[in-house]
Each structure stands twice: as C-alpha cells, then as structure tokens.
Amino acid sequence: MAEAGGAPAPEPVEIVEVGPRDGLQNESAVLSTEDKIELITRCVRAGLRRIEAVSFVNPKRVPQLADAEAVLAGLPREAGVRYIGLVLNRRGLDRALAGGVHEANVVVAATDGFSVRNQGATVEQMLAALDAIAPEAAAAGLPVSVTISTAFGCPFDGETPPERVVEIARRAAAAGAAEIALADTIGVGVPAQVRALVRRVRAAVGGVALRCHFHNTRNTGYANAWTAYEEGVRVLDSSVGGFGGCPFAPAATGNIATEDLLYTLHRSGVATGADEDRTAAVGDWLGERLGGRPTALRGRAGGFPAEVPPGTPGTVASNAQAR
Questions:
Q1: Which end of the chain has fewer CB within 10 Å, C or N?
Q2: Domain boundaries in the chain?
Q3: What is the 3-state secondary structure (H, E, C) of the chain?
Q4: What CATH architecture is 14-322?
Q5: Is 212 one of the catalytic residues?
Q6: Active-site residue, selected from the candidate residues 43, 154, 212, 246
Q7: Does the keyword Metal-binding feature in the UniProt annotation (predicted)?
C-alpha cells in the first residue's frame, strides 16, 4: 500500500491493551467481575483486538485480579480477538489452559532485586520456570510471550545492565518464546536507551518478534514508544486511561495511555485498527469506576481537527474577522 505520490505508507502497529491486567493491579479500588467483563467488552468494541485480560498469579498477592476464570467465562469470543493471561508457573499455565486464553505471557525480571520482591523468585528461578512452562504450552498449542521487566532500570538494583537484558532475551528465544517484550516497569528509560537496547536484543534473538511496554512515570513513555516504532517494533503495550503501575515497585505510576498513543500514531499516519474516540470513552468510563480521573489527555482535549459546525463560537472560522 502506498500514500499519494507513491511513497510507501507507514507500517501499522498492533496495540496490546494491558488495562484489564496491568492497569488494574495497582489500584486500591477492586472492580467487580461484571465491570471487568464490561471493560474488556468496551475495549473490543473500540477496535482493540489483543487484550491482556487476566492474571493467573496468587490471588493473595494481587487480590484485584483474583477472579480470572470468572472474567474469562463472561468475555465475548469474537473472531480476531485474542486474550492474554499472565502466567508465572505450572499452576498458572494449567489455569490458563482451562480458562481458554489465546496466549500466555511470562514475566521475567532483569534484576534479582525486583524479581524476588515481585515474584518471590530469582531471575534464574524464573528462567527455569519458563523452560518448564514453554514446552508444555507449546504441546497444548498455546503461544508464549516473555516480558522482560525492569529492562531499563530497577527501583532496587539501580541501572539494569543491557547485557543482562540481552542474555535473558536470548534464553527466552531459546525456550521457544514467540514474542519478547522489553518493559520499562518504573518509567526511567529514554529514547537513546530504547534505541540501543532494541538493536542489541534484535541482534541476539534473530527473527523473534519484539514488543515494547512503557510507563510514563517521568514523561518519557510516548517518546520511547515512538522511538521503538522507528526501530522497527510493531507491537506496543498501552493501558486505557493511562491506569496502571506495579504494586511491588515504589512510586511506579501508570502505563502510557492507549488513547494518547493512538493519537500519536494516527496523526503520524500509522494505522492501528482501533477507534480513538471510543477508546478515550473507555478510559473515562474506567476512571469513573475507579474513582479517579484518567491521566490520559486525549479524552479531555478531543481529537484534531475538531469536528465542530462552522461558525461555532471559539472556532477559527468564527474568530477569523477578529484578527
């Protein structure tokens, strides 16, 4: 496909909507099962087709996500829509297979300081768990992706050595990961760091697809997402409304907001298949349920150009004579 003048159109981006899992896990308010199903259903109606829907972790550690099976049972099953479940061990894999998710995502931290606090296991122990989970999932026909958390920095161990991330990515690829995500769990990364790490990981894992997951803690998340796109990453995580964070990382604020990411991509000519207005409305709806205003700005400001009748007070047309 080409744009006017024969130039090739920008390659599209696949959005992985993580609001129903990563977006809810750090909230003090606990949504009802019905509201979680409604949230995901609204995301589907907004054109989001790959959704991190549930988490199969110990409900005592993350009580906000304790009802995974009930949520999955109530979700719309539409062609082209894929639901992802977070899995950390064999018990979680068994639950994921029984619940009918389309993909399993295994999180492996890049630092022991975070891994022990977040998952109760060292990095090596999580890699061993991945080695056990991946072949079982493959035998059952369930694709496995691996998210490398704290890939850009750790709240406990400080700077994350890039070579550590590269080695984990290499081992994830060897285990059979269909996709590897680089996650800036606490929002410390900057574009130069993203560019360098994406290049090093790609060189290490060959043809394994890459994904990126950014938080906007220090207001670099959207610049990082665009940099990842420029480096050839075609799958990006985001959360409606910008909700999210990690309950095991101090001062970890929300993910980049799906509606704001969509605005950036769409204004740049990058297709996503999602509807900006409907996605922004989902963010507002979720904010009402959680009792807090979304950090996303697209819902407040609206799209551009704004669709208003000519001559409406305050528009360019109505003010033209005043200049």
A1: C
A2: 14-322
A3: CECCCCCECCCCCEEEECHHHHHCCCCCCCCCHHHHHHHHHHHHHCCCCEEEEEEECCCCCCHHHCCHHHHHHCCCCCCCCEEEEEECCHHHHHHHHHHCCCEEEEEEECCHHHHHHHHCCCHHHHHHHHHHHHHHHHHCCCCEEEEEECCCCECCCECCCHHHHHHHHHHHHHHCCCEEEEEECCCCCCHHHHHHHHHHHHHHHCCCEEEEEEECCCCCHHHHHHHHHHCCCCEEEEEHHHCCCCCCCCCCCCECEHHHHHHHHHHCCCCCCCCHHHHHHHHHHHHHHHCCCCCCCHHHHCCCCCCCCCCCCCCHHHHHHHC
A4: Alpha-Beta Barrel (3.20)
A5: no
A6: 246
A7: yes
